[in-house]
Model the fold of this input.
Amino acid sequence: MASVLDCVTDKVTRQERLTRDDAVALFATGELLRLGRLAHRVKQARWGNRAHFVLNRQINPTNVCVLSCKFCDFATKRGRSNAYEMTLEEVFSRCDSGIREVHIVGGLHPDWPWSYYLDMLNGIKARVPQVQIKAFTAVEIEFFSKKFRLPIEDVLRQLKAAGLDALPGGGAEVFSERVRKALFPFKIGAPRWLEIHKAAHRLGIPTNATLLYGHMETHEERVDHLLKLRELQDETGGLMSFIPLAYQVGKTRVVERQASAVEDLKTIAIARLVLDNVPHIKAYWVTMGEEIASIALSFGADDIDGTIGEERIMHAADAAIPVRQTREHLVQLIRASGCVPVERDALYNVREVFENGPTTCLSATPPPPGFAGREPHASVGTASSRPGGGGANGGVAYAGVSNGS
Ligand code: V47
Done:
């Protein structure tokens, strides 16, 4: 009898879309390596041996938040000992000229004025004009709209005029009303998240999409999440990247243990197969750990995010991984997985391709203190520059995928 992998391999070869039943069955397969190989072949058809990374800096301006989601260790209330609020100068001090992307996600602060956010983006662009700003999840956009009594389109237009280049994928959690009611009842659900991303795409702002997995969701709910994103992408084409975020157990302890490596790899591979219209699948090393993230580059992922610099959301939930990586380490991590490292910007324009270079033995040891992910180019093998090349939607999924395993 044909296995689910036999059927799915045939479909992929015929460039036929996977159904909900296919994807749910793939989560139950025992043929992990075969699933990974198929997803890897689809990734290779689009990106060859390349794997992307970005020199970025993550900024979480405050953890003060009007919401109290049951899975979130990051959010707190004003006046509590762990609460912090960055001044604009503190935000600016984190934007050095060696980075290509700032990624800004924070709590929903009850008192900050609208001008704080606009001044933040304007101020970053004034200081480091070449840096692209990926900022504010759909949940934050909805909050701004309600708090400052502006239609979503106006919020996005004003942020764009101030320097916004893209929206991060957060706030999607998992598109299930059952899970929303249990874990984040006061946060927007799927319909509003999707509407906000559609509005961004209409205004020419590309976005990412995340999935928070490994808590109380079922495989069916994970698949339904992917299908909603595929539908959105069919309509707008504005998604750049899909990022599954493994739930960090921390103190919220919705479940006792983080998702297994097998779950991580299956989620990446199935996302690559189901999201045939989303160009990039990101293995986020902060939540997966760098070892699984580098293996995920052979399971359909083509991106490992970036140097990060300082991350507080997952680290509030006790993520074990160091807070920052050097450019050299990411290059070596990608090389060690057999891929060609490609440095990109926030919009997936190619900046440098590291074609040749030594693959050294890697240890997972954190970089020395004070290393802020900013390395001289010459230190990392041989790089060939292609500024402005590539782009978010390069390549065509499935082309050149052959049958067999
Ligand atoms: O929506 C919160 C998640 C998201 C936990 O666009 C947690 O490239 C795991 O937007 N365990 C925000 N996840 C982060 C975000 C993001 C992250 C990486 C890349 C991109 C991108 C965007 O963080 C939230 C929520 O789903 N989150 N707490 C936790 N304990």
User: Anything to note?
Assistant: The chain is about 40% helix and 15% strand. Residues 71-74, 105, 137, 168-171, 173, 208, 210, 212, 243, 245, 247-248, 250, 284, 287, 313-314, 317 surround V47 (CB under 6 Å). Residues 4-360 form a domain with the TIM Barrel fold (CATH 3.20.20.70).
